[in-house]
Amino acid sequence: MLDRTRHFDTPSHHAMHVPRTMFAAAIDRFGGPEVITAHALPVPEVDAGEVLIAVDTAGVGQWDADVREGYFASRKPHFPLVLGYDGAGIVVKVGSRVRRLKVGDEVYSYNWENPKGGFYAEYVALPADKVAPIPKRLDLRHAGAIPITGLTALQGIDDALGLKRGETIIIHGASGGVGTLAVQFAKLRGAKVFATASGKEGLELVREMGAHNVVDGKRVDIDDQARRFAPDGVDAMLALAGGDALEKCLNALRPGGRVAHPNGVEPAPKKRRGVRLIRYDGISGVREFERLNAAVQAARLRVPIAECYPLPRASKAHERLAEGHVVGKIILAVHDRSV
Predict the structure, then answer these.
(1) Rg, the chain, Cα only
(2) Cβ-based neighbours of 57, under 8 Å, separated by 6 or more
(3) Is 130:212 a contact under the CB 8 Å cutoff?
(4) Which residue ranges does UniProt annotate as crossing the membrane (predicted)?
(5) Tens digit of each residue's pLDDT (9 = 90 or more) over 159-206
(6) pTM recorded for the entire structure
(7) What fold is seen in the domain 148-280?
(8) Fewer CB under 10 Å: which end of the chain, C or N?
């Protein structure tokens, strides 16, 4: 019988008591949201370079749905497969070679390749170099919402686009998990931000995030709006949604402008003469998390949570994800056992 009422010990600097089994939301086959079901699984063992985290919050994103549907089936994952590639929690055990982290640390992580299972569980074992202390200004709940989205947003602004003070940028699809953070990071770098979003709630949220100009992405004159914003042409664009509106926004770029988009944006922006197109992946590591923590602090980052589901309702979270128009980030509260 699965224990749905377990409480975690108060953190200490010694090894915490860790049970042998844990509650997890996992899949036994590929398919729709309904294949995510409750499991009692062994708590993963920790190797010398790993840490074991008692999970507080797990992020939910399109990448989870892609894995669930079998998009990466060629990698032959083992079932039951615990989803969840980012989140936050408390370190409860450290491997013999780990020096940077200790038991009791509040941490967050993004780890794409994890054969020992993901964050949709009470415990997750991860390589220590994919784990970092959470930013000082965030609690575990909000920190757990941003590893993938925060790294993707910051690396798009800083590394892919190299955005400079005084430049203009279009952030297309700005009301989602990546976009809401990208607006704030672009402002931190001193850029002037033109953002597109959809729906009244999305438009309002992106304005709250500080965009200088916010336009409904469904407007037929979106390219004219962008040209008014930057009469000499826009310097850069971060494309977080595909389609006709994206192609219209591209019309507003200046010659020599640049467009970046994370892998997974479909349809991807089409190549254009005189425009540099940059496709990238958000990556995690010690240095990347140090940069993210610094940017979170400097930007006084706000992390919009779209919806928070208890872990046993992970399938419902995936149903909501499939509906689209998610304003902010969907998360799972791992300690909440309500169904």
Answers:
(1) 20
(2) 87, 88, 89, 140, 141, 143, 144, 145, 331, 332, 333, 334
(3) no
(4) none
(5) 999 999 999 999 999 999 999 999 999 999 999 999 999 899 999 999
(6) 0.93
(7) Rossmann fold (3.40.50)
(8) N
